[in-house]
Design goal:
The chain has 166 residues and is of the alpha/beta class. The chain is built from four helices and nine strands, in the order βββββαβαβαββα. The chain has one domain: Glutaredoxin (3-Layer(aba) Sandwich). Strand 5, helix 1 and strand 6 form a beta-alpha-beta unit.
Length: 166
Amino acid sequence: MATTAFKSSPVNTVGELPAEGTPAPAFTLTGSDLAPVTLESLAGRTIVLNIFPSMDTGVCAQSVRTFNKAAADLENTTVVAVSADLPFAAGRFCTAEGIDHVTTGSVFRSTFGEDYGVTLADGPMVGLLARAVIVIDPQGTVTYTEVVPEITTEPDYDSALAAVRG
């Protein structure tokens, strides 16, 4: 299992992120329009999985805003904001914030958290997702992974975007 922290207290996940250089596990998330968002439907594109507990927190919301801004300049790339938020809430957030370069993906009826090793196994947010970023290339290979050391901090955008570019 991976380890992160929540307000300096260690928190474990149910597993490990997929290893860089390995095929990305298949996933099915639910988009804000209730349509499936799948690895297969995004095939042939670079995928940035921006994974976090909930858009209702300041750091999570900021990560969506930051990746939205970056995604405007990325060719053949889809950023997916992955959380346990219901699709309706994620859609409302994106509409209110003018987020138009990010796809939302809810895990509310998915095994994504277990398949990607990011479901929090203990701590006050048990059952939600750890803050992590995974980049998948157009061939479906994981090229970058990060679990932040402290859930209340933002991911390393520069490293993730460097992996996207190349």
